Backbone:
């Protein structure tokens, strides 16, 4: 027999996000969901601590990725100095260490032919690694995006199809800012797919992503998903348009915790346009 083991602590619709301060230096105060209080001026990144990523870093690296720059560099903090586009249809930006990435008002775009073969979305966070995502130059309703990712299913390898924007495999994602928009997955997690990892949303937006099956915005697969702030909107799937959380472990740390933020305007073809959760343990 199975009994429902809920981890949903609260569901707050239309409530402003919790206060989260960006680690980037700016004169304005970041109050979540890509909203700033005060005058926003040019953001200063101390180059002794921050590495400026550009399209050149993509073009000069094997397979068109940022793997060597991010994982073999002495830096742990990176910011975009311009919009960048991945240069291969079958690559993602692999994160295998603990880093902070500031979008700095710029976009990370998928390769123009993304979705023609199995990929891992735009950013793939590996086991034991962690990514803190921020956007130091964001203003209200605008900001840098992770966009255009298409994770497709590979019938030959029987794999893929989950996590169009960001995929996590037993790693950690802390999202304080930025926009994950316009990504898709054949099956699960158009915006974010979390497999046995830890995802914490404090700010930013996850919007207008699609999944062919479940979790248009986020699919939580036996992991921990904590929503403290930010906005999840305009996403769509067959089930769980905004969030789909599925946990069947006896690990009490796993599950879905919604403590703040805004979940609105998501849609599903059959069930749960906003949030769907299936949490249970054997008893």
Residues:
């Amino acid at each position: 027999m199975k009994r429902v083991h809920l981890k949903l602590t609260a569901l707050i619709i239309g409530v402003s996000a919790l206060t989260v301060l960006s680690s980037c230096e700016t004169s304005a105060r970041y109050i979540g969901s890509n909203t700033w209080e005060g005058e926003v001026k040019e953001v200063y990144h101390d180059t002794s601590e921050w590495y400026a990523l550009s399209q050149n870093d993509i073009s000069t690296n094997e397979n068109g990725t940022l793997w060597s720059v991010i994982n073999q560099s002495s830096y742990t903090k990176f910011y975009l100095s311009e919009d960048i586009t991945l240069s291969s249809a079958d690559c993602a930006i692999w994160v295998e260490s603990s880093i902070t990435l500031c979008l700095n008002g710029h976009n990370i775009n998928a390769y123009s032919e993304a979705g023609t073969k199995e990929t891992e979305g735009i950013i793939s966070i590996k086991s034991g690694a962690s990514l803190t995502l921020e956007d130091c130059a964001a203003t209200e309703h605008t900001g840098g995006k992770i966009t255009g990712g298409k994770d497709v299913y590979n019938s030959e390898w029987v794999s893929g199809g989950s996590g169009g924007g960001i995929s996590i495999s037993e790693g950690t994602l802390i999202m304080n800012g930025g926009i994950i928009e316009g990504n898709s997955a054949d099956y699960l997690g158009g915006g974010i797919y979390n497999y046995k990892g830890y995802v914490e949303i404090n700010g930013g937006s996850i919007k207008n992503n699609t999944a062919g099956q479940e979790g248009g915005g986020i699919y939580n697969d036996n992991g921990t998903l904590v929503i403290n702030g930010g906005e999840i909107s305009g996403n769509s799937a067959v089930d769980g348009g905004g969030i789909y959380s599925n946990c069947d472990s006896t690990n009490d740390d796993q599950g879905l915790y919604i403590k703040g933020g805004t979940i609105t305007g998501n849609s599903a073809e059959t069930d749960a346009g906003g949030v769907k959760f299936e949490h249970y343990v054997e008893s």
Remarks:
- Residues 1-42, 114-118, 155-159 have pLDDT under 50 and may be disordered.
- The longest strand covers residues 275-282.
- DSSP finds two helices and 32 strands in the chain.
- The two ends are 6 Å apart (CA to CA).
